């Protein structure tokens, strides 16, 4: 929803005061944002960055269920000592640890005080969220949305081709396994997407996304 609001033309819509109380869920658990203001993108870039920061805080709040004051430092420390699971909100059910860790890293990037490192919602943030959506959504949602062109989350950021063996990396992005291994084997210890140092060099197969890609390819080959 924020991506849509921030990308409207000619005037961008920025919420300015994003908080849990401003988010509503309908009967289908679709999120609705309420009480936003109209702000011009060229004069109100600070407001757009404020939305991104607030979004990061919201994600950390959803992950942990903790008060937002001091939540950034608490999550940063938990990740540093590999203890994120100890602060995940148990009332939300059993969090898939890999996805929770990716969300935490993404949210911390949104909360970075350095404006130059502020992630782009439509590119950086969605690159993390889209594979997760693919992993938990029905194939039909992708077929309805895109029958001719592959969904953006199917494309490897390095090769710019549909992935055959998608893998999660520590930066929260999903890459073609061979491509990201080649990147790491060449001596890189930074993210190909953000150029920041990776917390670790572990790669985890994204089996759910791979399955959805295969189904999409089978569907489109019969059309």
Question: Helix/strand-derived class?
Answer: mainly alpha
Largest sheet data: 3 strands, antiparallel
- Residue runs with pLDDT of under 50 for 5 or more positions: 39-43
Q: Please state roughly what percent of the residues sit in beta strands, choosing from under 5%, 5-15%, 15-25%, 25-35%, 35-45% or over 45%.
A: 5-15%
Helix share of residues?
Answer: 40-55%
Radius of gyration: 18 Å
The counted number of beta strands is: 7
Spatial separation of the terminal alpha carbons: 31 Å
In round numbers, the mean pLDDT is: 79
Order of helices and strands: HEEEEHHHHHEEHEH
Which features characterize this protein?
8% strand, 7 strands, two-stranded antiparallel ribbon, 8 helices, mainly alpha, 223 residues, 43% helix, globular, three-stranded antiparallel β-sheet
Q: What would you note in describing this structure?
A:
The chain is mainly alpha-helical. The protein has helices at 2-7, 45-64, 71-80, 97-110, 121-136, 139-145, 177-185, 207-221, and strands at 13-14, 23-25, 31-33, 37-38, 166-168, 174-176, 204-205. Strands 6-5-7 form a three-stranded antiparallel sheet. α2 runs antiparallel to α4, α4 runs antiparallel to α5 and α5 crosses α8.
Topology:
Layout: H1 2-7, E1 13-14, E2 23-25, E3 31-33, E4 37-38, H2 45-64, H3 71-80, H4 97-110, H5 121-136, H6 139-145, E5 166-168, E6 174-176, H7 177-185, E7 204-205, H8 207-221
Antiparallel strand pairs: 1-4, 2-3, 5-6, 5-7
Helix pairs in contact: 2-4, 4-5, 5-8
